[in-house]
Each structure stands twice: as structure tokens, then as C-alpha cells.
Amino acid sequence: MLVSSLAFLLSISEKKDLSWIEPSSDQVLPELITYPNSYGKLEILNADGPVQLKNHPFFEPIGSNGRACVSCHQPSNAMSVSVENLQKRWEETHGKDPVFAAVDGSNNPKLPQELKSSHSLLLNRGLFRIGLSWPPKPDNGVPVKPEFTIEVVSDPTGANSDPDFGLKGKEPSISVYRRPRVVGNMKYVMSPDPRFNIKTGTLAVTDPETGLVVGMNMMADSRHYTQKAQAIDAYHGHLQGHTFLTPSEQKQIVDFENQLYLAQSHDPWGSPLVENGKPEGLGAKAMKEGKVHVLANNNRDPIFHWFKTWENPETMSKDLTKEQKEFRQSVARGNDIFMFRPFWINDVTHINSIGLANPLRRTCSTCHNGQMTAQDIAPGWVDLGTTNYPNWTENRIFNQKTDLPVFKCTCSPSADPHPYLGRVVYTTDPGRALISGKCKDIGSIVMQQFRGLAARAPYFANGSAKNLMEVVDYYDRRFNMKLADQEKKDLVNFLSSL
Amino acid sequence: MRNGILIFCCWISTFCAFAQTTTGKYVAFLACPIVRDSKAMPCWLAEKDGTTYYLGQQGSSASAFYPPQLKHQVLVEGFIQDPQKTSCGGIVIDPIVISVMPELDVACTTLLPAEDGLEPPAPVPFPKYEPFSDDTKEFQILYDFDSDYLTLHKTRIAGEAVRVAKIQQPARIEIHAYRGKSKLSDGTILEEKLAMVHRRAEKMFDVFVGLDISKEKIKVIEHEKALGGKGEGDYLNRKLVIKLYK
């Protein structure tokens, strides 16, 4: 009797706390739920109503390693997973949570798994190992003959030199390390562009099942065209599933993803960001109602609409404190910088190289041009520089050592070179080139949506920016923006409210 | 037949002007491009043998003029109508065709600050896209030197060719791919890579097949001999021609 009522009490307290959802949990994800983070609160909206987690394939350990999709896509972390939450989880479970599974939750599956150091990339940078066959095996089954060879220059994790699964292994694959991406607001992520891919000048890819054009903005390298293909791959890979996802499981997963909207909803003092529907670009409801595929790098209808009511304390709610009003003004200024402050964008493949001039005097929103998410509305792989030497994030002033593997890519003389680095490129992640096999794609990473940033540090696909200020600092250095301290703060406040 | 080509030529206004212009002094050269900031739009210049030329200004992917790129040399082909006419401090070349040379040249890095009085002219209006007439029999696409990249403008022509082919249901479609030579003002002759012929052809073939034109109907003809090399009009040889036969 005592035991069972204790179990009952435990299950109640468990029910309350959805900050880490374990696989097979007997909880309900409500229609609307908020989660605190260091910038305020994040809001998750299940447009189809409350979600029963029990028996739901996104939440059940349907593979063989005890993980569920939710292990790495936690609602409290805007459907990604933050380093803060991972570290907490490590302490609570002594590293036994299935999220740390050897296959990709450690630097190398062959390292002693009980050691924290074997999971350093996950615990310090939030990175999972992504093993990709090399040469590539793309979704559409059309074989790709790579234009470049890959040598391992430095292999701190040992994964790329492994005799079984390393680059020269029996089943050659390359291991790169990447952050999980937000699973939500998917109608924007998946929205297709016109028939031609403006960046490559070739036909856009189509879904083999429906024949419809796909958006190519999912995953850091756009390797999956559809959510279904992605889910099947995650089942075999991350979940180490040995059989198959049934069609009904596939549908349940994709349906769940498609009804989920998320965005930051409250300011650092706990007040709602949106009042009387203003600013119209913030909050999960706006995400649900927004139009998809709007090119918004202009002053007609900007990326996150307008912040007019926040430009002036007079037009804000009387109940807000001075500090709160100042915060809102700072966000509005940050939006202005993001939209309109020009700087020289240089040496970025698929932006400068597509007829737009190198350098190009434009703004953040030139690349982050899609309304509501700030993803590129064209297929968004771009070599911003985060992974390629010398603009990579791994630069430290005094040493060039990196925790990540370094590869030397050598392109064939007959291939078009990387437009700004030539035919020999040092990189920590060749990105899109691992799928396309193209020399010019080396280091191109698909930008992801800006929503829920506050809940899911660190940033960039390689988890190199510990916080939003480090993201802004990267741009300041990379493009010599000469941002004043106040401008940097404004940008950070702006990004934190999305 | 003629009609098709004419319509194409006027597809993009600069090309249209170019195709019909014989006035002015023809210049062709390779140089490092130079970008000069300005209050309006950054302008693009190039210096050759001590003379600075104005090429055009920054725009968008819908603009007729695609500017050069630092870290690459630019091939300039065009006409000087009036050596006194300058923009942003350079003699205006108009009409103009430029190509970004694909290989790196890390020496090309000059970025100049804005200077009072050095402004580009008003931007050239975006080219207008009239659909091709449904009985067009021939479509032509021109490329940058040593490039098979189909820009927004070029994919529109390709898209139109497929649209028209679907209406006409031709018995045979021929894709003719060419490469060109370019004679520079100093007498040097540049020749496009042989591989361009195949790459241009293959890309267009993939577009047609990808847009559901039956493979069996398409005949690809690769013209390996580099054409031109005479100066004026050399840019017209870096081309691909699509012909529809009843």
C-alpha cells in the first residue's frame, strides 16, 4: 500500500516536470506549455491538442539502444538539446541516460563509455557523431562520384582512423560532429522553392514518392529530402533500430512534427512578449499562423515583421518596468541591425558566388532571408566559414588546435575549385560536399531556423558558439562589422526573443 | 527560327543592345576587378594598363548585370562609346559582358572606400521576362567564360524551352553545346576548356529529362571545336542552342 502510493506520488511529481522527457514516459505534453530559460520562457504549441507520450513513436524507445527521438529533441530545449541539460542529465544518471549511447553520443563508440572524457564533444559542445558513408550514398539513389579526396589531418576522437568505420575502414565513412536541429515549425523548414535551385542552377530535387519539389533546408547538409526519409534514417542510426519503422509510425512521427510550433514567449522578467498580437512576429501562435516561403529581406514585410510598438516606451504596456521597456527597445534595435545594417559579406560560397558580387554590401537578412525562421528560402547551404580554415570557429588566437577532426580535401584539377579557397581545403566538416561530392560545396552548412535560440545553446552546427554573444562576435570578426558593444547587446537581445 | 534568336537576344536588355551594337570601340581584357563603395550601391571597376573602367554596380540575382568577384580575375568584353563618359571614376563600358574566371587569383583584393562625387548611375532596370512564343523553334543560352552555371536568367530560358517543347511535342529535340575563344585587345586568345562543351550539354540534358521530356527524343551534339577568337561578338560562341524539330 505504502509502496504503491509512493509510486503514485512519484508519478505525479514526474508528470509535472517535463524538462527532461525520458523515453517511454507516461506523460502528456499539453497543447500549450512554457519552459523557463535564461532569457525568459519558451513556448511549445501542439496545434492538434495534447500529445499522449505513451506509445507514441517519437517518445518510445523503438530502436535497440533505449533512446527515443525525444532523447535528443527535448521540448524544454526548443526540440533540440542544450549542453546545460545534457550536463545535468550526465550528473543525474552517471552517464547512463541513453542519450549518451556509444554509437553517436560519444566521441568514438570504441572509447570506454563510462568516462566523461569519452563524451566530451557532447558534454562541452552538444555534438553528436554523424557517420556518413564516403563516397556518398544520396537519398535519390543516384550515385555520386566525388570531385575531391579526403585525408584525415587530425583525429582527436579516433573515429576517422578506425579500421572498421573510419575513412579507410572496411565500410568507409566519415565522422563529423553536429548539433541536433529544431524539430518544429516544420512547414517553414520544408517549404519548397521554385523548380530551379537558384544557387546551383540545376533542377531542384523532388520527393521520389510524390514527384513534388522539396525545400532542401533540413539537416546541416540537406541529405534528406523528406521528414519521412529523415525519420527512417534516425531510427536506424540514432536509435539503432534493427527492423523498420512501420508506415503508421512514420506517419505518427511526421504528423507530430508538423503540428508542433515553438518560439520564445516571455521576457527575462516573466512578462509575455506578445500583447494584443504585437509584435506580430513573436510567439508560437504567430508561427502557427504565419505564411510560408516569404522572401522577407526587405522593408515591405521584414523577416520577423515589425517591432514598431517596441520602438518607443509610450506604445508599450503601462505595466512594464523601465528595465523591461529598455529590453524591448533593445530588441527592436537589434531587429533593425539584423535587417538593415550593411556590412561587406565576403568569400561566402553560394552567396557571393552566385552573381551577387564578392564582396557584397548587404545585411544579416541577405542570407537569413525567409520570413519567420530566418532560414534561406532557397536551399540554404552556404559556406559562412564556420568549418573551413581560415575562417573556421576553431581559431584561437594562440593555437589552431581544435577538438574536432580536421580533414584535408583535395579537389581534382578538372573540378570547379572552391571559389575562395581553391583546390585544397582544410575543414572540420565538409558539410554539403559530403552529399553532393562537389569541391565548391566544401564547408557549406545549411543554416537552421532562429526559433527558440534562447533554449538551446550552444550554436552553429558545430556547437562552437557557447552563447548568443559568441555568435555575434563570430560575425563581428568574420565580416569586420565593427559592432559597438551596445549593438552587440541589441542583437543578442533580439535573437533571444525569437 | 530567326525569330527565336531575336527574342532571346532581347531577353536581357544588355545582351540585346550588345548583339545589335557595332558602334564604339571594342575592348577585351583580363584584369583584377576593383570594388568601390559609394553612398548608393558599391560599384565595380577594373584597371588595365593604367586606365580604370567602370563595369557596373551591385544588384541582386534578378539584375541583368552580375558583378565580378574579388579573388578572381574578370574577363571584360564590351564597347567604349565615349572615353569621356565615366561612372565611379572609371570609363564606362557599355554594352558589357563580364566573366568571373573560375581559378583563384588571391592578388585581386582591392576594395576602395566611398568618395564624394564617385557614384554609380541609376541602376539598370531588371530585365523583363516575356514568355517565348509557343511556336519558337530555337532557344539559345549564353554562358560566362569557362562556366556552365545556369543563372536565374538562363534557367528561365531553359524552363521556357521545356514549356514550349511540351506544347509543340516535337519529334526530335537537339541540344547543341559549344565552346568559344576570346580575343583580347592585346592580341592574346583565350580558349574555353574542352570539358565545358560536355558539361553544358549534360546539364541541359538533365534539365529536360528532369522535367519529363523523354530521353529518347533528345539528341545531344557536342561541338568540340572552339569557335570565334576574332574580337567583337566572341561572347556569342559560349553557347548552347536547343532546337525543336517537328
Automatic annotation (TrEMBL), chain B:
Keywords: Signal. Residues 1-19 form the signal peptide. This is OmpA-like domain-containing protein.
